[in-house]
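Figure S4 source data
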Amino acid sequence: MTLQEIEKEVNTIGAFLGAPEHLIPTFGHSDDFAKPHIEVDKKGFHYIIVERGQERHRETTKNKNQLLFIIFKSISFSMAVDFELSTRP
């Protein structure tokens, strides 16, 4: 599966869930500031977080579904926190 195919699938699922654009990772490059990005190479799919120019976290898998789980675990957690903060009495 190519990086473009992964990006298309993530964007489709993200739109279905109503995920804000700022929570969707970038693909093939890092925006830094701890925003996740996705890379694909012969070793598999990589979920990477770079902050202040240094890699802080990397998860690698050969399974596309595992990659989607990693991506949307982070997105759904952030959405839940945002919802809780917006509805807090």
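Figure S5 source data
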Amino acid sequence: MFHQIAIGSGLMLLSILVGGAGILAMETGFARSRLWLVREPHRPKLLLVMLGVSMVVLGIITAGVWIWALAFFGLGIFPTLEEAVYFSLVSFTTLGFGDVLLPHEWRLLSGMAAANGLLNFGLLTALLVEALRHVRLGQMNARKRDD
């Protein structure tokens, strides 16, 4: 049991670190393009920001799923990488079909993968909203200064 918790905790931390690196890269991009983002026209730039942030979020989720899948496969829990990715994706999204299950001695990892996915989706949704809000506030402040 403690072995599973240690492995799961390590995988969760790795997933969070990868997410943090993605968010840092995105923040750096925003900082570098700040002057361009606050100039008119605003609406197309908001669309580009939304698409960009969505792609970063998708990349972070995908990386998290692969981290878990490679761990499942590396531990010999699943015989094929496809099965490990499938289970990881179903767990990470908390969908939990139940058609593929972990062996009894590894079942705690499925709950930890689901908790990691739930945490990631919540944090990344907040990130998407905050990024749009931040850019839009910058645009509105720039407009006020220009008026």
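The chain has one domain: 2-146. Residues 76 and 84 are 10 Å apart (CA to CA).
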